[in-house]
Design brief:
single chain, alpha/beta, 43% helix, elongated
């Protein structure tokens, strides 16, 4: 039986109002006017049309006849405009002069059409908003394949995603899973699709289409949560590459046994970089540059080129530091690393260039 060592105090604890029971998908928002503002604007437009109609009828009130008393006052004008624009038309007040009838044909009828368009348009928009969102969601599910699921959009998750984006990954191929609705709103604002919910639950990961994902990044705040998410993710997708982060190094073997392909110990990694920077600030700067994709020097993994087959490691154009042969990692000075074989992959240091195709982001060797 395994026991997961927990971090003493979660520095980024979720607030009570963010512990949601419901799980939902949030697609990136389009630039649209807020619904309340739209309704208010259209209501003002409808009132303006009504007021204009009342004014037109009142100016020409002598051309109208009221079957009740024969006289048309201001209240009768308001009444006539209301029943006319709403197409009710009781017929108790009617235009009888030629001028009043002409005004009805040229002005009142177009205003009636505009009034109906405003009201019907608002109603249809309210009724079809949910249908439109469902259609967008179904289309998103249908087109999503070989994507990347990032569980946790805190500092670790953001940094990992920035590295992936720097290597050519598009935002449309990323789904963020986080229990905080506020965090998902931020992710939406940055152009990412988000799923609000607890990633330890299989139904939440299914909403993120994890079963069709190519790779999964687990960057939760707690090690026990990372273990449960890894177990659930591996159960749903046997072929995806899963990379997880833990705070305590002694929990790393448990993550690997749970199905993670690579495990990063965030606290230890930061501590080693701090220690290296103390011994040699320049070396620390170089290491930080290597793990920051897209600027300065990049650490990449690539297949051996045809022209490099049969070469020694030191003869390649790039600065190769390790040869990946099968499941073995051979350092550049290992006698078995040379000559290079056609099925080998190399880990090399290269000058950062604008991304043209996705490259493999490296994790620690197992």
């Amino acid at each position: 039986m395994f026991h997961v060592k927990l971090h003493g105090q979660d520095a980024m604890a979720r607030q009570a109002d963010e512990k949601l029971v419901s799980r939902r998908i949030k697609l990136p928002k389009r630039e649209v006017t807020k619904p309340l503002r739209q309704v208010t604007r259209r209501l003002l437009m409808a009132l303006f049309v009504l007021a204009l109609t009342v004014l037109i009828v009142y100016i020409d009130r002598d051309g109208y006849h009221d079957n009740a008393n024969g006289k048309v006052d201001f209240l009768d004008c308001v009444y006539y405009a209301t029943v006319t624009l709403s197409t009710t038309g009781y017929g108790d007040i009617v235009p009888y002069s030629d001028g009043a009838r002409l005004v009805n044909v040229l002005l009142i009828t177009p205003l009636r059409v505009v009034f109906l368009i405003i009201l019907v348009g608002t109603t249809l928009e309210v009724l079809t908003e949910r249908t439109r969102e469902e259609w967008r969601l179904n289309r998103w599910r249908k087109n999503l394949r070989e994507h990347t699921v990032v569980v946790g959009f805190g500092t670790k998750g953001r940094s990992a995603l920035q590295t992936l984006l720097a290597t050519g990954l598009s935002k449309e191929q990323v789904v963020i899973v986080d229990p905080s609705a506020k965090v998902i709103d931020i992710a939406n604002a940055e152009g990412f699709t988000g799923v609000v919910g607890d990633a330890t639950r299989s139904d939440v990961l299914l909403r993120a289409e994890l079963q069709k994902a190519r790779q999964v990044v687990i960057a939760t705040q707690r090690d026990d949560t990372a273990v449960l998410v890894t177990l659930t993710a591996r159960q749903l997708n046997r072929g995806a590459k899963i990379v997880a982060a833990v705070r305590e190094e002694e929990n790393a073997p448990l993550l690997r046994q749970s199905g993670a392909d690579a495990v990063i110990t965030s606290a230890s990694a930061a501590g080693r970089l701090l220690g290296l920077s103390v011994l040699s600030p320049s070396a620390g700067t170089v290491m930080e540059d290597l793990i920051q994709q897209g600027s300065g020097l990049d650490l990449i993994e690539r297949p051996v080129r045809k022209a490099e087959v049969g070469m020694r490691v030191r003869e390649t154009e790039d600065l190769v530091v390790t040869v990946v042969r099968g499941h073995r990692l051979l350092p550049y000075d290992d006698p078995h690393a040379s000559p290079l074989q056609a099925t080998d992959r190399v880990i090399a240091i290269v000058r950062a260039t604008p991304p043209t195709s996705p490259q493999v982001t490296l994790g620690p060797a197992e």
